[in-house]
Structures are given as structure tokens and as C-alpha cells.
Hints:
The chain is mainly α and about 150 residues long. It has helices at about 10-35, 45-60, 65-70, 85-100, 105-115, 120-125, and strands at about 75, 130.
Amino acid sequence: MNEKMPAGFWVRLGARAIDGLLIGIFIVALTFIIFQGFSQDNSAFNSIATVYYVVLPALWAGYTVGKKAVGVRIVKKDGTDVGFGRMILREVVGGIVYAVTLGIGAIVSAFMVGMREDKRAIHDLIGGTYVTHREPETSSAGQAVESSYI
């Protein structure tokens, strides 16, 4: 049994779909409240999504709402909790790579998650992270161990 318990393609896709749905509902509600109607501008969605995918895992032991729902989380390569620096590398720099390659990098990443033994995608390699089924370690008091900032 692999001690790292890496998460595969389908569970990661499910988590991303849940997160996308939640962010989408939030954005639609917010734009409807602000503009009294719907907006075709995707910049708000992209900005809020980026903040969500960077901040939430850094503060919540590698979880997003979708990842928590399917039982996976993001950790550093050594298995410890991620911080803001790692998540910026993973999400922002990884996203730039996917944009520069016109989405080809994202397709390659999907195959990497499906075929590599460690299930790491390009953004995982950039950020020094992986997605695991392992729960965070807890202290003797039963609280999750604090995450670092990097």
C-alpha cells in the first residue's frame, strides 16, 4: 500500500466540479445583487476562484469545500500542510503555464494524474504538492497541526 495515498483523476475532477459549482453560484448571486441582473464578464469569476483556490487550502489544512466533500486534500511533497507560498505557485504559476500552452498543459496534466504512480499534475510539480486521501495529523489535544506559510 502506498503510504502517501495519492488521489486519482476522477476524485480530483469531482472535487473541482463541486468547487466550481459553489463558486459559480456565489458569483451569480453576487453579480445579480450588485448589477440587478446577470453579467457576461468572467473576470470576477476568475479572480474570486483564484483567491478561493489559494487562500482556503492554505488556511484549512489543504482542503477546499469540494476536496473536503470527496475526502482529499493538498499537501506539500513531504506530507505537511501547504501554506500561501505553495498555493500561489500551484494555482497562479500553474495557471499561467496552462494559459501559455493554450490548455495543452491542462490536458497533459490530466493524463499525468491518470497515469503517474504519484498522481501529480504539472501544477503539483510546480508547487511541490500532491493531492492525498490522508487526513491531517492531529495534536494530542485533537486539533489539526498548524500549516506553514510556504
